[in-house]
Amino acid sequence: MIRTLLLTLAVLLALPAQADSASAPAASATAAPAPAGRDFMLTFDDGPVPGETERVLATLAQLHAPDGSPLKAAFFMVGDAPDNFFAGRKYYAPYEIWIHKGSAHANPELVAKVRAAGHFVGNHTAHHAWFRWPWLSSEDAVIGELQRWEAETNPPAGQPKLFRPPYLIETHAVKAAARKLGYQIVDGYTVGDASPIGTLYSVKQNALHYLQTAPDTGRPLVLIFHDIMPITYEHLGEIVEFLQQHGMRPVSFDPTLLADPALDDQPDSAPPQHYLSNPG
Ligand SMILES: [Zn+2]
Questions:
Q1: What is the pLDDT of residues 115-156, one digit of tens each?
Q2: Is 1.10.10.10 the CATH classification of the domain at 38-276?
Q3: Ligand 1 is a single-atom ion; what residues have CB below 5 A from it?
Q4: In angstroms, what is the span from residue 82 Cα to ligand 1's centroid?
Q5: CA 59 to ligand 1 centroid distance, Å
Q6: DSSP calls for 5-62
């Protein structure tokens, strides 16, 4: 009996180490044939935060697109995130306890640095607004959040207007506001780096899982990271390398390669399924 228990314990302890290795012989023996590699784009939400956003920039500076050019990403920044608990309650989702987010308003030099490196800076609202609160759900309220963000970040003329609604909430009002102000909504697959139970291992596996299983639209898959989360700013290079080892290819962010959810005619879409399991 005790021997069985010890054996079970030993197997359980050994499992994560084995699964984490690149070769994973036990898994590949039973898995279906490896799917063809796929292109993916990197996006980063909820910054900028000093000391954290720069680390992601430094990693990106060492990555290259398949043609050898420096890899470009998109940063969906918060205009000026509420910095105390009670102010946060007015804007953030009711289930979101973690309230550490970035501010373009407080860090204009970081916004400039991201732009100077050739990355895109997108609108993630002024206050990381949860557009299901009654006081934030109208089209006018969404427009107010988008315009307040513009006042905080001074987007250069002629740049693509990119918008990622916080929590990927895409109600009729959100889509209508985006259309009215000429924004392209940028959807994506969140890798779980902001999840309270997220680990480097789970983030790698989530990203790989999406790349292997998401419906093939012929477009690069958009992965959503958070430049202000330690898993990402400490391990981005390792995560990308892991995906490359599995045949996936990082490509530069290019808004012309994306579908725009604001252009479909669905009246009021539910949050995408892939986001429900990983709020943040
Ligand atoms: Zn966010």
A1: 999 999 999 999 999 999 999 999 999 999 999 999 999 999
A2: no
A3: 45-46, 166
A4: 13
A5: 21
A6: HHHHHHHHHHHHHHHHSSS-HHHHHHSPPPPPP-EEEEEEES---TTTHHHHHHHHTT
